[in-house]
Amino acid sequence: MPIFDVVVVGAGVIGLTSALRLQEAGAQVALVAADPPAETVSAVAAAVWYPTRTDPDPRVLAWAGETYDELARQAAAGVPGVAMRPTRMIVRPSDDPWWSRVVPDYEDHGREWRFSVPTVEMVPYLEWLLARLADGGTVLERRRLRGLAEAAELAPVVVNATGLAAGELCADPAVFPARGRIVLVANRGIETSVRAEHHADGMVYVHPRSRDVVLGGTFEPGEWDTGPDPQAARAIVARCVDVVPELAGAPVLGERAGLRPVRRGGARVGEDPERLPGGARLIHNYGHGGAGVTLSWGCAASVLVDFGP
Ligand SMILES: Cc1cc2nc3c(=O)[nH]c(=O)nc-3n(C[C@H](O)[C@H](O)[C@H](O)COP(=O)(O)OP(=O)(O)OC[C@H]3O[C@@H](n4cnc5c(N)ncnc54)[C@H](O)[C@@H]3O)c2cc1C
């Protein structure tokens, strides 16, 4: 007989936030993941609130708004790694700030939008989420499942938060990777985030953190290789310096690459009409692409509603 009410598969930001909301609601939660939080795509994220490459869908706006509010509360409460940052975003006249309704201080300055958003340093933040879960008795079990039916041996409800791997685990052909590369440089006093998604040489974002600055980036659909690429890294630095000249000469601390779990048609969040073999219910929460951090708490709330009272 299962001793848990629900098993969450996946320990990236989507799995951990879902597990925490379920635990807070009183469920006995099992947490199973192949990779620990520090080795997930979530740990690579620049992790700035922004609904990157998502469609203007009311569900997405609701998830994004709920996450904005939660992260802003966490920043005010001093949660490790979470801080509010002023942002300048260089835009084209045709760009549509469809998400701005949930950003309280959004201002349109013509070719530039200005607003404040939560930013997250993911490694300490994921550790904090894991510690909150452990405080409530939920401990991560490291195990790579061959199929979601294996998880159903632990509980009558399975939450699928396996990111890119969900494509294979659920035979969902809409899931594909979009590789993102970033470069980390020393922070010598930069305080404001800058975004210029339509820079002539490629996407630009500059996100200061406590000790470093994240320079990005790339969005490369269908690319699976996350090995280093010095040429791509140099190109990222050059276009970021073009937009933020104060970055010139900043010591490079490292480069990272991760595979965003994109899903054509948007994230799949909700209960599967089909049950797993053996009868367990299956609730999906995957396919958040370049916006997993931005949508995390809103999607976790949606999982809790599907889980039921
Ligand atoms: C360079 C870069 C920058 C980004 N910047 C931002 C940003 O600024 N803002 C933002 O909102 N988002 C950003 N993202 C996107 C964000 O990182 C993702 O949307 C998010 O991390 C997805 O989280 P996840 O929990 O679904 O997946 P993951 O973090 O990949 O976690 C998946 C989990 O599932 C587990 N798993 C998979 N298969 C199995 C199996 N068979 N058995 C057991 N466990 C399994 C894994 O081990 C892992 O624990 C960025 C991504 C990249 C790469």
From TrEMBL:
Coiled coil: none annotated. Its cofactor is FAD. Its EC number is 1.4.3.3. Keywords: FAD, Flavoprotein, Oxidoreductase. It comes from Phytohabitans kaempferiae. It comes from the Bacteria. GO terms for molecular function: oxidoreductase activity. It is an enzyme of class 1 (oxidoreductase). InterPro entries: D-amino_acid_oxidase_CS, DAO, FAD-dep_OxRdtase. Pfam families: DAO (PF01266). Belongs to the DAMOX/DASOX family. Residues 5-301 form the FAD dependent oxidoreductase domain. It catalyses: a D-alpha-amino acid + O2 + H2O = a 2-oxocarboxylate + H2O2 + NH4(+). This is D-amino-acid oxidase. The keyword Oxidoreductase applies.
